[in-house]
Amino acid sequence: MLLVGGAVSAVGIGLLVTFLWMVPNAAAREEKAACRGLLGDQPLNPMICNGQPCPLPRPAPDFTAQDHQGKPVRLSDFRGKVVLLNFWASWCGVCKTEKPALNAMANEMARDDFAVIALASDHNWSDVLIALVDSLAPGSPVPKAEGGVVPLPAALDAYQRALPRGVPFKVFIDPPAGDGNIGQITASWGIKAVPETALIDRQGNIRAYFVNKRDWTTGVASTCIRSVLDE
């Protein structure tokens, strides 16, 4: 009887070990399937990898951007959190159509260990604020531009009136060099057109990469992001 009991115990332990081995592998397969279904397996620009192929996962290049108060913020400041980094610009029409879905997803999935960052390739905050109003509160009154740019106090007032609770994602600015359109940080990632988006894990590795806009409210998008969050 002892031998039989020992054999049964050994089988049970073997099944438990097999189960525990299968769980992380199943989670990894789910992540890959969901992110691939969202076309999140897009290749990174080779310039991130010194001209060599850039397979995922890949460490995300660190950078320093500015918040609305002019305070420098590093991507590495978010280490320990899962980050969805969205490269966009006020002048990008496709980016504006993507923002409502990004906003809804950030609201629904809000948690302390998840950050959605919108990095704007813009020369000034006025354009960023007006673009957020246009995309997230369409029809709201916006001030007229003076000399091509809305004065910052007027843009800030319009933003606060249209979006009194702000937005559920962090917005940083990435000014282009000279008269260019693409921000210097964005360009350093090899990005020539926006929007593009990177899903970065807690260790700072890019796990999925998306070229062009996505509907972030879909089930497959939620599964892709949650698969990294739940690790």
Task: Explain how this protein is built.
The chain has six helices and eight strands; from the N terminus they run αββββαβααβαββα. A six-stranded mixed β-sheet has the order 1-8-7-4-5-6, covered by helices on one side. It has a two-stranded antiparallel sheet with strand order 2-3. It has one domain: Glutaredoxin. Helices cover 39% and strands 16% of the residues. Helix 2 packs across helix 3 and helix 3 packs parallel to helix 4. The chain is α/β, with parallel strands linked by helices and 231 residues long. The longest helix is centred in the N-terminal third of the chain and has 36 residues.
Rounded to the nearest angstrom, the distance between the terminal CA atoms is 42 Å
Q: What is the count of DSSP helices, taking H or I runs of 4+ residues?
A: 6
Structural class: alpha/beta
Proportion of strand residues: 15-25%
